[in-house]
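Need residues for this backbone.
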């Protein structure tokens, strides 16, 4: 991660930025259609509408005033939270930023007393899956689906937070 990168809370305008950048990046890198950007926008909008500051958080990674990535932690129940919308800009990949964002989610979830942190991803997102595996997440299940104009394999991962 570039020295000087800060993690900050959401600000007005970040939701649109996250949807915009993820929509563009996944279209460029994987050929995913506009329904992916719509899904990101829906998830982010629901986060803001239902935000529970005691039990949820979002982090925006910023370097010299530029957004370099983000991640959201959403309450599922009193014992489970979900990691959502992790992404890192191409120029910041391989710097440890994705792991730092994931670690922030894990630390926050533990601090709030969650017993489980879960996430859903697609198997073709190799770098993200590597981050999750390194952080101790375990693959729970897989399911084929057709989304964003492609045949994909969705994966459900979970991390036991009980010490």
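Answer:
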């Amino acid at each position: 991660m570039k020295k000087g990168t800060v993690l900050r809370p959401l600000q007005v305008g970040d939701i649109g930025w996250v949807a915009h950048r993820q929509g563009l990046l996944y279209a460029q890198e994987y050929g995913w259609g506009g329904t992916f950007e719509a899904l990101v926008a829906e998830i982010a909008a629901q986060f803001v509408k239902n935000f529970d500051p005691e039990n949820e958080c979002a982090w925006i990674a910023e370097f010299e005033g530029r957004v370099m990535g983000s991640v959201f932690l959403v309450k599922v129940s009193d014992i489970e939270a979900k990691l959502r919308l992790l992404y890192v800009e191409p120029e910041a990949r391989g710097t440890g930023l994705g792991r730092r964002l994931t670690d922030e989610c894990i630390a926050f979830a533990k601090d709030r007393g969650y017993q489980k942190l879960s996430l859903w991803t697609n198997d073709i997102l190799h770098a993200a899956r590597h981050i999750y595996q390194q952080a101790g997440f375990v693959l729970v299940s897989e399911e084929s689906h057709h989304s964003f104009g492609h045949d994909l394999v969705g994966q459900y991962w979970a991390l036991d937070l009980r010490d």
